[in-house]
Amino acid sequence: MTKETIPRGCFLCHSDIIGNKNVKYLCRKCNVLFQFNMIGLYIGRFQPFHRGHLMVVKNALKEVKSIIIVPTVPLKAGENDPFSAENRAAMIKAALDREGINNYEIVIIKDIPSDADYVNHVKRQVKPFNVVFVGENRLNGMLFSDAGYKIGISKRFLDISSTEVRKRMREGGNWKELVPEGVADYIKKHELVKKVQGPRKL
């Protein structure tokens, strides 16, 4: 039997299901094995979404049926957070749509000050998932691992960082080569480089 979401109990007898919580569930009473489609979660700042992020998504989708991408909203935005959550969500959509990727969902989530409550905070706002893809944010990996989730470690692809993209934007460098075409087009259309460069000094 296949189901996209993870059940609380056996479909037949409603008793607790035990086993591999990531992929398969075994009901000891009915001796029935339930297997589920893997749903991934990818949390990030995406300031902005670049080619390295795109590679993480593409590689993740080789392992899972679909992926939930979460652009986070910081408790207090700083100079390293020039793009709104809505801007970043639109960038991600533009990039993935251009690539012909459609098995994804974007959910904007605000950060909270408590690490202890963070996993439950995320779980309340997205559909069930069972593998979490993390990059350099080791804290997220630790929090979700401690909560029992499978963790997929994503290395920095193409040695690209959002910091470098923003640096090139500020200095008038070639930032477009670091981001997917859909993102470049969106940023250009909405003149978002100005958000990174800030007001002109007289």
Brief write-up:
It contains 7 helices and 9 strands.
Structural overview:
By secondary structure, the chain is α/β, with parallel strands linked by helices. It has two domains: 1-36, no CATH class; 39-197, HUPs (Rossmann fold, 3-Layer(aba) Sandwich), CATH 3.40.50. Helix content is 31%, strand content 19%. It has helices at 51-60, 85-98, 118-123, 138-146, 162-171, 181-189, 193-197, and strands spanning 2-3, 24-27, 32-36, 39-44, 66-73, 104-106, 109-110, 131-134, 150-153. The strands form two sheets. Strands 4, 5, 6, 7, 8 and 9 form a six-stranded parallel sheet that branches. It has a three-stranded mixed sheet with strand order 1-3-2, with no helix packed on it. Helix 2 (85-98) crosses helix 6. Mean pLDDT is 85; it is low at 1-8.
- Overall CATH architecture of the largest domain: 3-Layer(aba) Sandwich
Shape: globular
Calculate Rg over CA atoms. 19 Å
Helical residue percent band: 25-40%
Number of domains: 2
CATH topology of the largest domain: Rossmann fold
Average pLDDT works out at 85
User: How many β strands by DSSP?
Assistant: 9
Q: Give me the number of helical elements.
A: 7
**CATH homologous superfamily heading of the largest domain:** HUPs
Helix-strand pattern, N to C? EEEEHEHEEHEHEHHH
How far apart lie the N and C ends?
Answer: 67 Å
Class derived from helix and strand content? alpha/beta
Instruction: Note the main sheet.
Output: 6 strands, parallel
* Percent of sequence in beta strands: 15-25%
Give the CATH level 1 class of the largest domain.
Alpha Beta
Give the low-confidence spans: 1-8
